[in-house]
Amino acid sequence: MSDVIRVVLAEDQGMVRGAFAQLLDLEPDISVVATAADGDAALRAVREHRPDVLLTDIEMPGASGLDLAARLADEPDAPRVVVVTTFARSGYLRRALDHGVAGYVLKDAPIDRLADAVRRVHAGGRVIDPELAVAAWEGTDPMTDREREVLRLAAEGLPNAEIAARLHLAEGTVRNYLSTVIAKLGVRNRVEAARLATERGWL
């Protein structure tokens, strides 16, 4: 059994999680050793079971798939990470690659492609959905990390004063960051900026 690839599957949609787990377990060389419905549970499952591959959605309650990849990157014996998502957004893919994700596959891909991605990633390769590999370089996020952080809090509806308090900034500095982001994205206000950044996978 040493040649069986051990997988932890993180997916917040129960039906999708169950279907993926059952279909992957039909593969003779893949075993789903644990499933998780949110990012925090996935992190616990990875640390408990020490799988070869973590198969994860991006957007989940708790830690996101990208958060998981970032947290696990420096851990000993960290699993290789494959993102499986409905989000065909270039910004997500670029951030995933920055976090060391080894695979990025869309959920509507056939199950045999997903299984093949697990095998190739486990063998040390990288698997990126072909249509995303081209799209990834079409749009570059113009925001700095701090600008993105400020816009993310603004998108949650926080007023400037609360954003300033959370990030230990002056309220005027927050206004300046938001003005800069609005100008960079060519929109009229913070609501449009947040919408555009979200659509492109930059938040």
UniProtKB/TrEMBL annotation:
Chain positions with 4-aspartylphosphate modification: 57
Domain Response regulatory residue range list: 6-122
Record InterPro entries: CheY-like_superfamily, Sig_transdc_resp-reg_C-effctor, Sig_transdc_resp-reg_receiver, Tscrpt_reg_LuxR_C, WalR-like
Domain HTH luxR-type: 136-201
Domain of life the protein comes from: Bacteria
GO BP terms: phosphorelay signal transduction system; regulation of DNA-templated transcription
Record Pfam families: GerE, Response_reg
Protein name: Two component transcriptional regulator, LuxR family
Cross-referenced SUPFAM superfamilies: C-terminal effector domain of the bipartite response regulators, CheY-like
SMART domains: HTH_LUXR, REC
Keywords for this protein: DNA-binding, Phosphoprotein
A molecular function GO annotation: DNA binding
Originating organism: Pseudonocardia thermophila
